[in-house]
């Protein structure tokens, strides 16, 4: 686990050289086909060396939920275990890790018409208006959900509109199940940058590298399909949303770059907030360089007293 741009994939690819691991992606953007550069998706050479499960499994026109992830990841974990290997879950989508660990509370089924009305409000008045509406009906959830987190805002308000009961109330009435269906023990290692400024610099460098690699062209190809729009979770993901808005003429190139870097830093901040409250976490103080691989390997050798070499 760890914030964006801290080097999780780089470390994971090296780990499979020494340990009997198979990588399973825990990333809400890597699931989508066609979202490559902006998602930081490993290239074909890397995937040939270190295959990743749960990458490129969904068309971006079809939203992928946390419940979808949980169902899929349990299947993949069992497949890896059946091979006599250890699943190495790698990513920064903290909600996915949480529901894997805790299970899912019972929630009312989605209603497309309700979701459409919420999306229309967002398009008409912006996501802050959706957050304001959520504050009126479920202030507890509104306190927990950032105004710029459209997927969670939409779901929280949708739950109330469908059931008349707040999301926070449903969570308290139907707590997570402690995941009795987990087929193995979960050990959480978190790469935590020692220097926050260095992480911010790494984020800026990576975003500029994505632009040089063709991020604008990639988003232009997605727009050209004609069936995608900026209310879909795939298109609203960090980086893609800012480039999409630039192509729509909402701001100039320089503003798009600034907004993309700022949004990525805000994502990293939210990820670190999740990790600060994570129980039984094994922190790895990372320097954002090659030493991180040695640190993680040493920690794993201590935690796995008799590791089977890959």
Quick structural overview:
With 310 residues, the protein is mainly alpha-helical.
Q: What is the topological layout?
A:
Layout: H1 8-18, E1 21-26, H2 44-49, E2 52-53, H3 66-82, E3 86-91, H4 94-102, H5 112-125, H6 127-137, H7 139-144, H8 150-163, H9 167-173, E4 188-193, H10 196-213, H11 215-224, H12 240-247, H13 253-276, E5 281-286, H14 291-303
Structural class: mainly alpha
Number of discrete helical segments: 14
| Element order: H for helix, E for strand | HEHEHEHHHHHHEHHHHEH
Overall shape: it is globular
CATH architecture of the largest domain: 3-Layer(aba) Sandwich
Distance between the termini: 22 Å
Mean pLDDT: 91
Oligomer: single chain
Helix content range of the residues, please? 40-55%
Order of strands across the biggest sheet? 2-1-3
Radius of gyration: 20 Å
* Count of discrete structural domains: 2
Major pleated sheet: 3 strands, parallel
Strand content: 5-15%
Top CATH class of the largest domain: Alpha Beta
Number of strands: 5
CATH homologous superfamily classification of the largest domain: P-loop containing nucleotide triphosphate hydrolases
Which segments are poorly predicted (pLDDT under 50) over 5 or more consecutive residues? none
- CATH topology tier name of the largest domain: Rossmann fold
């Amino acid at each position: 686990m760890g914030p964006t741009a801290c080097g999780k994939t780089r470390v994971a690819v090296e780990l499979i050289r020494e340990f009997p691991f198979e990588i399973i992606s825990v990333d809400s953007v890597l699931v989508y086909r066609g979202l490559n550069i902006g998602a930081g998706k490993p290239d074909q050479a890397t995937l040939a060396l270190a295959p990743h499960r749960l990458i490129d499994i969904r068309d971006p026109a079809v939203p992928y939920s946390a419940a979808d992830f949980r169902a899929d990841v349990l299947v993949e974990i069992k497949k890896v275990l059946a091979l006599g290997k250890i699943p190495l879950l790698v990513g920064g989508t903290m909600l996915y890790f949480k529901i894997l660990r805790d299970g899912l509370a019972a929630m009312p089924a989605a209603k497309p018409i309700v979701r459409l009305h919420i999306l229309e409000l967002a398009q008409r008045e912006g996501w802050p208006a959706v957050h304001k509406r959520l504050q009126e009906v479920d202030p507890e959830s509104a306190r927990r959900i950032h105004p710029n987190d459209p997927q969670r805002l939409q779901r929280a308000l949708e739950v109330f509109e469908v059931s008349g009961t707040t999301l926070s109330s449903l969570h308290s009435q139907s707590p997570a199940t402690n995941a009795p269906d987990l087929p193995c023990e979960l050990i959480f290692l978190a790469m935590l940058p020692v220097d926050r400024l260095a992480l911010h610099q790494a984020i800026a460098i990576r975003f500029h590298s994505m632009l040089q690699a063709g991020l604008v062209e990639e988003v232009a190809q997605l727009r050209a399909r004609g069936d995608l729009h900026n209310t879909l979770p795939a298109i609203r993901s960090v980086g893609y949303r800012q480039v999409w808005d630039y192509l729509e003429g909402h701001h100039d190139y320089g503003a798009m770059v600034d907004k993309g870097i700022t949004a990525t830093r805000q994502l990293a901040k939210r990820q670190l907030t999740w990790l600060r409250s994570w129980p039984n976490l094994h922190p790895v103080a990372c320097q954002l360089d090659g030493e991180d691989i040695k640190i993680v390997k040493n920690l794993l050798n201590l935690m796995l007293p008799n590791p089977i070499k890959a």
